[in-house]
Amino acid sequence: MINVRHLIKRFDGNAVLDGIDLSIEQGEIIVVIGPSGTGKSTLLRCLNFLEKPDEGHITIGDLSVDAAHARRDEILALRRRTAFVFQNYALFANKTALENIAEGLIVVNRWPKKIAHSRAHEILTSIGLADKADAYPASLSGGQQQRVGIGRAMAAQADVILFDEPTSSLDPEWVEEVLALMKQLATERQTMLVVTHEMSFAQDVADRVIFMEGGRIVEQGPPSQLFQAPEDPRTRDFLRKVLVNQPINPLG
Amino acid sequence: MNILNIDYMVGLVPILLRYLPLTLAMAFAGMVLALALASALAVIRVLRIPGLNGATLLFISFFRGTPLLVQLFLFYYGLPQVLAFLTQINGVTATIMGLTLHFAAYMAESIRAAIIGVDRSQTEAALSIGMTNGQLMRRIVLPQATRVAVPTLMNYFIDMIKATSLAFTLGVTELMGATQKEAAGSFLYFEAFVTVALIYWMIVEGLAWLQRRLETRLNEAYRR
User: Fold this and answer.
1) What mean pLDDT do residues B189-210 have?
2) Could you give the ipTM of this predicted complex?
3) pTM of the full structure
4) Of A81, A144, A230, B103, most Cβ neighbours within 10 A?
5) Per its UniProt record, what PANTHER family does this chain match (chain A) (predicted)?
6) B125 with A139: Cβ contact below 8 A
7) Which of A186, A182, A196, A200 has the alpha carbon at shortest distance from A249?
């Protein structure tokens, strides 16, 4: 359903993404892991043109975009088929939780306000925040803000939700509730591409884990294979370092 | 020194207040036009629109770099000598023009600062759900920039109300001009100017009260 071919992004001549090829099936949950600064976030940001890729092709459904010659309407169409969850939540500070979720429906999808609000209420209920509908982001905890951030992404009814380290800014006490919501989405077979350092989430939820380093996909496979029998020495080296601090249940 | 002539001052108030509408009209007209111009200049600077950016910088540099009184004399006495169509310009128009251009130069910079002060990640969030640049400016960035800009813009508005008194040097009988005429008739200069000072002061205090209420409303979303 989603097909990325030979995606390249350079910053000041350095290839941060060095020819990424990636296919994602509908309903697939993919977790991207790897050392910091290896282009994981850049990959997500290039998929919806928050960063403009220098080369490559991105196909989602029947929409195919040549990155080097992307037109404005193509970029807009691509963004409407993807949704993004930000590390720092990035909620609209001047809008309530309900309005944050309804905003895209009203402005982008041109839904009548009343219908958009009732849909936003449904989403708030499903993320367990129905009582916070009228709360502004400043009065919500980090975990609640990120759940609203996910709710905003759910409202977009995108083909894929891109999660950019969704729990990395959270105090430890709020991490679980956000992961639980992501697991809930996974059981509903929402297509997800997740950059995270939460190895146990990858182990439990992912259909496929991708290990990236130096702007390339080094190795990928089901979590059982990648975690228990990594083939590439770079993957083994990375996993040895992170799994010391974050043991995962080998029986998964 | 004579004792302050309170009766004269009290009697003067209703006479002077007849000129208050003109003073306020010039200030409001100047403020609305300056806000529009300043917003345009700020957007040009934020988006660095080629060609216009340089012209904007020159405009801001000149109108911030020269005294308002000089600019008013330039528009009223100077320009009509070289631009024939301006010979019909009256003092009120010249004042509004001067206030607009002068204060727009200042306000453009505070509006620009308020726009770039809005968290960049919210812009990305708006783009990520498929908003256009216009939509994200209108719905997300400008409402938040307004909140940041209101205190400084109100400051400029207060300054502008008082600056309308310079219209008196162009022969406009507004609040200040009327006071001058009354004082010249009564020779009670001290009383007359204390009275007009108090009137300006009351107007500004009223505005400050409005500003506090406005800020409370705009801050609603940010209380923890």
Assistant:
1) 93
2) 0.92
3) 0.82
4) B103
5) AMINO ACID IMPORT ATP-BINDING PROTEIN (PTHR43166), HISTIDINE TRANSPORT ATP-BINDING PROTEIN HISP (PTHR43166:SF15)
6) no
7) A200
Interface contact A76-B130, CB threshold 8 A: yes
Determine whether the interchain pair A92/B119 forms a contact, defined as Cβ–Cβ distance below 8 Å.
Answer: no
Closest CA to B174 of B72, B64, B79: B72
Of A82, A91, A139, nearest to B224 by CB-CB distance is: A139
Distance between CA atoms of A146 and A156, rounded to whole angstroms?
16
pLDDT tens digits in sequence order for chain A, 252 residues long: 899 999 999 999 899 999 999 999 999 999 999 999 899 999 999 999 999 999 999 999 999 999 999 999 999 999 999 999 999 999 999 999 999 999 999 999 999 999 999 999 999 999 999 999 999 999 999 999 999 999 999 999 999 999 999 999 999 999 999 999 999 999 999 999 999 999 999 999 999 999 999 999 999 999 999 999 999 999 999 999 888 877 776 544
Which residues from B are below 8 Å from A95, CB to CB? 221
Of A80, A91, A93, the CB nearest to B130: A80
Order the strands of the A160-164 sheet from edge to edge: A82-85, A160-164, A192-195, A29-33, A208-213, A216-221
Give the per-residue SS3 of chain A: CEEEEEEEEEECCEEEEEEEEEEECCCCEEEEECCCCCCHHHHHHHHCCCCCCCEEEEEECCEEEEHHHCCHHHHHHHHHHEEEECCCCCCCCCCCHHHHHHHHHHHCCCCCHHHHHHHHHHHHHHCCCHHHCCCCHHHCCHHHHHHHHHHHHHHCCCCEEEEECCCCCCCHHHHHHHHHHHHHHHHCCCCEEEECCCHHHHHHHCCEEEEEECCEEEEEECHHHHHHCCCCHHHHHHHHHHHHHCCCCCCC
For the four alpha carbons of B10, B16, B21 and B26, in that order, the dihedral sign comes to negative
Residue A237 corresponds to which amino acid?
D
Whole-number Å distance between alpha carbons of A104 and A231: 43
Contact B221 A94 (CB under 8 A): yes
Residue pLDDT, tens place only, B25-76: 999 999 999 999 998 999 889 888 888 999 999 999 999 999 999 999 999 9
Contact A136 B222 (CB under 8 A): yes
Count of CB pairs separated by less than 8 Å, A with B? 75
Q: Kindly indicate the confidence band of residue B1, based on its pLDDT and cuts at 50, 70 and 90.
A: low
> What's the pLDDT at B51?
87
